[in-house]
Design a protein that fits this description.
With 511 residues, the chain is an alpha+beta fold. The chain has helices at residues 2-32, 35-41, 103-109, 173-186, 194-206, 211-220, 401-418, 503-508; strands at 59-64, 67-72, 86-89, 112-115, 117-120, 124-133, 139-142, 147-152, 160-161, 166-171, 226-230, 235-240, 247-248, 253-258, 262-270, 282-287, 294-306, 311-319, 330-336, 342-347, 352-353, 358-363, 369-380, 383-388, 395-399, 432-442, 446-451, 462-467, 482-489, 495-502.
Length: 511
């Protein structure tokens, strides 16, 4: 009786174990089945330096195109943006200097190119200008004798005056004595006064009286104790140096007058576009607020370049009979060279100006995007003339070039850091420059310094970044410190510090 029960219990146990095992197997298989395709589509374990099986190109690294300075050695999602990291590939030969950008990334960033074309460029050049007084028309009124100021008729600068208008009335004892001598001679008998009368007139002229004033005394036959000095021009007063009751001496400046019937317009022309300008070139000047342009000609191209704006001053002489042009007014000057010729042209926005160079990003096809130095000429209507560095038919980036240029600079820095120096290559030492300034920012890569003019580098006052010296930055530097620093410029125009010292320490160590 017990044996059948035991057999029955064993069978039930085996059946239960089999059912439970089948249940666990089904659950485990059902849980793992969705992961099988995920394992098949997972990243293949690519890392920097591998060959991408889809493109066949060597992968340099991955980055977020919106934050190109941060690099990653494997693919994934960007920590900055909700987008996957983009791969940056090496050039086809593995050693070129171009930057390859994925087509999808280029589309997302809005990178556009423009073709270098040979076309006729408009000879018109517009430049800003200012109206100025014609310095050739300035008249200086000076005292010719010792005198007392009785009355000043013109008391303020920029007051208008007319030719012949009295500016100031003087009482001069020397003039009175010369007049009395003449009048005394004129009362002598007719036969004896001819020679003496001429000598008395010469005496009045010698005392400083003008021929008009001498004629007034001769015609009236009366003493003129107070003599007025008239204005010799129609214009404005630019300086008043006399007041009522003053005593003046010979050679003392009383007034400065300027004739506004003719004025100068000083135009500021970029030095790269001034080569086509010459005296006699026709121009049209449009003053601010005026409806009609005034036609004139270039008087002189002044031999002076503004080091801050890199412009050359061009002087234009204009008639101003109706006094519409006033000193200090802004004006637009349009030069018409009349020499229209076929030149290479690219859009102005394609040019990256570094201050010392003009750079464009050239689309070299399979070689990627390559930074190229060019020489530029005239600019007009959003187009710039190319004098050298490009050929017709090439394509330059007109939008998004700053991101590509940033990427090229980062890669160039990486390649220079990883490249072994050539033992046999001579090292050309760049000239060093010295300056004094104030630290604005301190980072691990260098300093941001606000400094004064540095004549040896042809720099004006500015704030810019300086890379840290090879030995690293001295300890204790902080924003606000005044420092004396030495630096040199590398081939890319980057300023690299050689030494940094507190300005106070350097001053105390001076002999």
């Amino acid at each position: 009786m017990k044996k059948p029960l035991m057999i029955t219990a064993a069978c039930l146990f085996l059946l239960g174990a089999a059912a439970y095992g089948g249940y666990r197997f089904g659950v485990t298989r059902g849980t793992q089945s969705p992961q099988a395709p995920a394992t098949a589509s997972a990243p293949s374990g690519l890392k920097a330096g591998d060959i991408d099986p889809q493109t066949g190109k060597k992968i340099l690294y991955w980055h977020d195109p919106m934050v190109p300075g941060q690099r990653f050695d494997k693919p994934g999602k960007s920590p900055f943006m909700d987008m996957p990291l983009a791969a940056v590939y090496a050039d086809g030969d593995g050693g070129g200097s171009g930057v390859t950008v994925d087509s999808r990334v280029a589309q997302n960033l809005g990178i556009r190119t423009a073709e270098v074309k040979a076309s006729r460029m408009s000879p018109v050049l517009d430049a800003p200008g200012n109206v100025a007084i014609d310095e050739r028309s300035v008249q200086v009124i000076q005292a010719r004798t010792n005198a007392f100021v009785q009355h000043v008729a013109v008391r303020a600068t920029l007051d208008p005056v007319r030719r012949g208008q009295a500016l100031v009335t003087l009482y001069s004892p020397d003039w009175v004595a010369a007049q009395e001598e003449y009048l005394a001679v004129s009362r002598l008998p007719a036969g004896t006064q001819s020679d003496l009368s001429g000598a008395a007139k010469a005496r009045m002229l010698q005392a400083g009286m003008t021929p008009g004033q001498v004629s007034a005394v001769s015609s009236s036959g009366k003493l003129q104790p107070s003599v007025a000095i008239p204005s010799p021009v129609d214009g404005v007063v630019t300086e008043v140096a006399v007041r009522d009751g003053m005593t003046v001496s010979p050679g003392m400046t009383l007034f400065r007058l300027a004739d506004l019937s003719q004025v100068w317009v000083i135009a500021e022309v970029p030095e790269g576009q001034a080569r086509a300008l010459a005296p006699g070139l026709p121009v049209k000047v449009s003053p601010t607020g005026a409806s009609d342009a005034i036609v004139g000609k270039v008087d002189t191209v002044l031999p002076d370049v503004n080091p801050a704006t890199r412009t050359i001053k061009v002087r234009i002489v204009l008639p101003n009979k109706d006094r519409r042009l006033l000193p200090g007014m802004f004006a637009t000057v349009r030069f018409d060279s009349g020499q229209e010729k076929e030149v290479l042209q690219i859009p102005v926005e394609s040019v990256i100006r570094t201050g010392q160079r003009s750079v464009v990003i050239v689309d070299a096809g399979t070689a990627g995007f390559v930074a190229t130095d060019i020489k530029t000429g005239r600019e007009a209507d959003g187009i710039v003339e190319v004098l050298g560095g490009l050929k017709a038919g090439q394509k330059v980036v007109s939008s998004g070039q700053f991101l590509i240029d940033s990427e090229a600079s980062l890669r160039g820095t990486s390649e220079r850091m990883s490249a072994a120096p050539a033992a046999s290559a001579p090292v050309a030492m760049a000239p060093e420059h010295e300056g004094v300034g104030r630290i604005e920012t301190v980072t691990g890569q260098g300093l941001t310094i606000s400094h004064g003019p540095i004549p040896t580098a042809k720099w004006g006052t500015m704030t810019m970044d300086f890379a840290a010296p090879p030995a690293g930055l001295p300890k204790g530097l902080k924003p606000g410190d005044r420092v004396r620093f030495r630096f040199h410029l590398n081939s890319d125009g980057m300023a690299i510090l050689s030494s940094v010292e507190p300005a106070a320490t350097v001053q105390e160590g001076k002999p």
